[in-house]
């Protein structure tokens, strides 16, 4: 269908030639595009405080986002947090554990773990690459250690997030992304799955997880870190 | 009566429809309003959104080529389609090459625009709609009636009845929660069994070659991850320079659509499964669709290419709120649809749509990228007139009017005769019925005119001074 490609490009070029006779070069177009974003810091909804961790925690637990969150000091406390969650929600002590070395190396005594995920997995435990305080979003990059479906198939999704990996604003994350190889999937997960498709009323647990629990790991407060 | 007025009349008479429209658009307006009020810099952000889109539209070929280059580098296959037929042909060919029997679809208005559901049916491929609303209307056999809430025309009671009739394990259906659970159970296995997943794209990111989907349900990722093949169909206007630019537009899009700050799931899909990946599609195809968009560039409709498909103009339109989406007869309803449908279906077929508008300006006011919708609608009215598409009676009446207003003496004489005659029919300041005015008075009263014309009153005041 190369002729379709040529026709579409020619049609665009023809209309542009009428409007802007001198087409700037590629570098100039890119520079123009980025100059537009200079105004972004002045017009974002002003809500990220000096304490980025607290801003994230406050946002992710808003009813509109619908997640729960707790805080632990170190990775060693993560399995306990999961065990407590399972007990509180009367869930079976069997979890799909994301096949990430950081998670797999923890002591999961008392909980049966498996590195794969079933279609209706009751509980999956995962690790977020980072978070964004502005929106209360968790960020996942797909990869060998991070299958995409872990964030979509379970009923309960428990996610570990290191507090040092919370970016204040969406643009702080995109700046970091630009320095990494782009993964197959970038998933920004902002709360539990929901739908407003029947009469506009919000109902949780549409196709993705019905429950999202974030375990913040590390310093309780902090300003940001931009380098990964 | 023509087809549009027939459909509109039927819609206005349907009280269940009115209830359904009021429930969803009412909630949507309230939530958008709260989200916008919580963002003092919304107007500046909106101006930035407009500038980003205008910048891309002005350099569309540059960004298409950059996107194509980066998408191919990520392992995606990029296809180009001049029109709906080509886009469907390409998509069906990919499905057939993959030996697909079952296809899952994540909601895409572009897919509706190009007629993909029909093309899949004709090819004998089972289509499973995974967005809850699309699932509802697939069961009902209806077209979408809103671009964000395709099943907006269904009340919860109607959805419960549909699910009871079609789901294998519907349960009690007492609450909306129970209906959502039933759909979840029904679709679970189908997600995993599909051979191909088809999605649209909210953004095409030029500098990474990724495509972005936004959903609240998580159905897009469950559509695009398990099947062996992922096909994206997207309009060429969906380009953004970078992921950062997409973020600025996402802030506007989501607030304007549902009043949330971000949808639950915002995903950037970049190419097929990588070495070592445990899930993801082995093939990733992107079909770039023109279907009238380059024509819009050349025909004074470039501003419409800014559209983010948020649906705010529908929710705030006094006409849409009375007649709902189906009455418009096109894929895209409401103000944005009345601008787009003449492009897609031809003005002769859709000339009534730009007239189904009070020009109150609400659509432009709530548009997150400030599309001058009333101006574009007036442009279509103007074109319909110039192309002689208006009925002879309208042209004749306006011809007489023109003849009169160009001759002030004659015009004043006519008003001097008409005023007392009209007042004969008035009761308490209103005219309920009058010969030649049935088209107006059948539905509402006409205010009685003043005893004397404006010009007469002016003359009297001047001479009294």
Description:
The complex is a heterodimer of chains A (228) and B (465). Chain A is of the alpha/beta class and 228 residues long. Chain A contains 7 helices and 12 strands. Chain A is 29% helix and 22% strand. In chain A, the strands form 3 sheets. In chain A, strands 1-12-7-4-2-3 form a 6-stranded parallel beta sheet. Chain A has a 4-stranded mixed beta sheet with strand order 8-5-6-9. Chain A has a two-stranded antiparallel sheet with strand order 10-11. In chain A, a hairpin with a 4-residue loop joins strand 5 and strand 6. Among the domains of chain B are: 41-294, Rossmann fold; 408-464, no CATH class. Helices cover 53% and strands 11% of the residues of chain B. The longest helix of chain B has 23 residues, at 15-37. The mean pLDDT of chain B is 95. Chains A and B meet through helix 1, helix 2, helix 3, helix 7 and strand 9 of A and helix 2, helix 3, helix 4, strand 1 and helix 8 of B. Strand 9 of chain A pairs antiparallel with strand 9 of chain B, so a sheet runs across the interface.
Keywords:
heterodimer, A: alpha/beta, Rossmann fold, 2 domains, six-stranded parallel sheet, four-stranded mixed sheet, about 30% helix, elongated, B: Rossmann fold, 23 helices, 13 strands, about 55% helix
Low-confidence sequence ranges of chain A: none
CATH class of the largest domain in chain A: Alpha Beta
Specify the biggest β-sheet of chain A.
Answer: 6 strands, parallel
Which CATH-level-2 architecture of the largest domain in chain A? 3-Layer(aba) Sandwich
Instruction: Fill in the CATH topology of the largest domain in chain A.
Output: Rossmann fold
| Number of E strands of chain B | 13
User: How are the strands of the biggest sheet of chain A laid out side by side?
Assistant: 1-12-7-4-2-3
Alpha-carbon Rg of chain B, integer: 26 Å
Approximately what portion of the residues of chain A adopt beta-strand conformation?
15-25%
Residue share in helix of chain A? 25-40%
- What gross morphology of chain A would you assign? elongated
CATH architecture of the domain at 41-294 in chain B: 3-Layer(aba) Sandwich
């Amino acid at each position: 269908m190369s002729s379709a490609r040529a026709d579409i490009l020619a049609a665009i070029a023809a209309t542009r030639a009428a409007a802007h006779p001198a087409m700037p070069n590629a570098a100039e177009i890119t520079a123009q595009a980025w100059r537009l974003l200079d105004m972004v810091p002045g017009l974002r909804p002003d809500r990220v405080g000096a304490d980025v961790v607290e801003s994230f925690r406050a946002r992710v637990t808003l009813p509109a986002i619908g997640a729960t969150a707790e805080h632990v000091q170190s990775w060693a406390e993560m399995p306990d947090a999961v065990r407590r969650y399972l007990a509180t929600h009367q869930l079976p002590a069997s979890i799909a554990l994301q096949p990430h070395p950081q998670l797999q190396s923890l002591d999961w005594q008392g909980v049966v773990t498996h590195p794969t995920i079933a279609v209706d997995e009751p509980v999956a435990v995962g690790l977020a690459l980072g978070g964004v305080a502005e929106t209360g979003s968790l960020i996942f990059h797909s990869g060998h250690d991070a299958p995409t479906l872990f964030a979509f198939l379970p009923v309960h999704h428990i996610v570990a997030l290191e507090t040092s990996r919370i970016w204040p604003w969406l643009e702080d994350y995109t700046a970091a992304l630009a320095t990494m190889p782009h993964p197959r999937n970038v998933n920004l997960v902002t709360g539990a799955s929901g739908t407003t498709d029947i009469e506009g009323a919000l109902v949780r647990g549409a196709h993705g997880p019905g429950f999202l629990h974030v375990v913040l790991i590390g310093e309780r407060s902090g300003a940001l870190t931009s380098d990964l | 009566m023509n087809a549009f007025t027939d459909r509109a009349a039927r819609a206005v008479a349907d009280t269940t429809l009115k209830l359904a429209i009021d429930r969803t658009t009412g909630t949507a307006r309230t939530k958008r309003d709260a989200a916008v009020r919580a963002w003092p810099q919304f107007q500046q952000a909106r101006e930035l959104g407009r500038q980003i889109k205008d910048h891309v539209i002005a350099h569309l070929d540059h960004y298409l080529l950059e996107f194509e280059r980066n998408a191919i580098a990520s392992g995606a296959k990029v296809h180009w389609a001049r029109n709906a037929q080509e886009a469907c042909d390409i998509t069906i060919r990919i499905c057939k090459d993959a030996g697909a029997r079952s296809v899952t679809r994540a909601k895409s208005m572009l897919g509706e625009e190009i007629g993909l559901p029909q093309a899949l049916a004709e090819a004998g491929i089972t289509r499973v709609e995974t967005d809850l609303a699309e699932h509802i209307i697939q069961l009902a056999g209806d077209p979408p009636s809103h671009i964000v809430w395709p099943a907006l025309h269904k009340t919860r009671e109607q959805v419960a009845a549909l699910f009871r009739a079609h789901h294998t394990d519907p349960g009690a259906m007492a609450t909306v929660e129970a209906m959502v659970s039933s759909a979840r159970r029904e679709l679970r296995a189908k997600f995993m069994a599909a051979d191909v997943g088809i999605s649209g794209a909210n953004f095409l990111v030029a500098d990474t070659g990724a495509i972005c989907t936004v959903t609240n349900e998580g159905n897009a990722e469950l559509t695009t991850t398990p099947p062996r093949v992922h096909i994206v169909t997207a309009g060429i206007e969906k380009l953004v320079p970078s992921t950062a630019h997409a973020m600025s537009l996402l802030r506007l899009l989501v607030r304007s659509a549902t009043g949330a700050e971000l949808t639950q799931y915002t995903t950037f899909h970049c190419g097929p499964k990588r070495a070592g990946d445990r899930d993801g599609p082995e093939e990733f195809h992107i079909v770039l669709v023109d279907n009238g968009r380059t024509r819009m560039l050349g025909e004074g409709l470039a501003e419409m290419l800014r559209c983010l498909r948020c649906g705010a103009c529908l929710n705030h339109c006094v006409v849409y709120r009375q007649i709902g989406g189906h009455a418009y007869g096109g894929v895209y309803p409401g103000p944005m649809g009345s601008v787009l449908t003449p492009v897609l279906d031809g003005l002769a077929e859709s000339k009534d749509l730009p007239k189904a508008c009070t020009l109150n300006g609400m659509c432009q006011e709530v548009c997150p990228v400030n599309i001058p919708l009333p101006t574009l609608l007036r442009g279509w009215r103007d074109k319909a007139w110039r192309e002689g598409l208006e009925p002879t009676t309208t042209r004749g009446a306006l011809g007489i009017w023109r003849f009169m207003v160009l001759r002030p003496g004659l015009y004043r004489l006519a008003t001097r005769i008409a005023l007392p005659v009209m007042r004969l029919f008035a009761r308490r300041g209103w005219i309920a019925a009058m010969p030649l005015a049935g088209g107006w008075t059948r539905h509402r009263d006409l205010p009685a005119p003043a005893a004397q014309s404006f010009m007469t009153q002016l003359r009297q005041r001047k001479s009294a001074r």
